[in-house]
Design goal:
This protein is α+β, with helices and mostly antiparallel strands and 281 residues long. The protein has one domain. The chain contains 5 helices and 12 strands.
Amino acid sequence: MNAITSSRSRHRFRLILILVLSVILVSTLATVVVFAMKPSAANPRFLTTSEAQLVATSRFQNFNAGTREVELRVDTPDGIITGRGYFDYVTGAGLARFTSSASGSTPTSGGVEPPSTLIWWTFDDMGELRGGVPAPELSDAIPRLDIDAGWVFSPREELVDSPLGALLTVTAGYSLDRPDNPKLIEQSDAIWLGTGADDARNTDINVQLPSADVARSEGSIPRENPTIPRVEIDAEGMVWRIEVGSGAHGTGIVTYGLSSAVTIPVPELSADTKKTGGIQE
């Protein structure tokens, strides 16, 4: 990887945090409704050397895994959005089938198929297949993404102010073709929040990511900040869960599954293809 690519990759990591912070700041100013996040450690602390090593490896592990199964969930005042699909960290694209339910119900309550849609996304662009209810199965959509068959595409900047857009952006950005700098992570304001809650995956640590790509100030105190993503990582440095913020607009969680041989296609999108309209939530 050359110096330009490396610089862009690290800028991407910082940009993810800035985008999420912007989303939650707007939400918090609008109302004081706050959604419950997973309980964390009673005494958060800065990371040890070994813990920083795991965090530094985690994005590379996603890249090395190729395609991973993903389950996504966003809780909002209006209801619940859930999705199941794949993210291909080689092509840099994901595809998931989403369903939504009204507040007070669940995506499968009532015995009726809830509204569904397909969403394709990269770090820079997101598209939604509209007009089909229910949406096609993933197995039918993956081999060839027909961008002329009812898809509406929008750039990231138009969608990241929604909780689903923020979650998709973080999912797409959690990959790098080399490990991050563990020393810089150890010196940052990243904090340990306890062990992971997923006993089946044997997740080793729950970490609040750094808020910036710089060393923390001398005398800093570890502080939890719900606007910054939290990740659960196992003893091999593999990430299994990412939680994105809390605020009036909702809380987003992506849970990773196993690696897959599925390849997500990346169609060529022209400027005319990207239409304003955004993802419907």
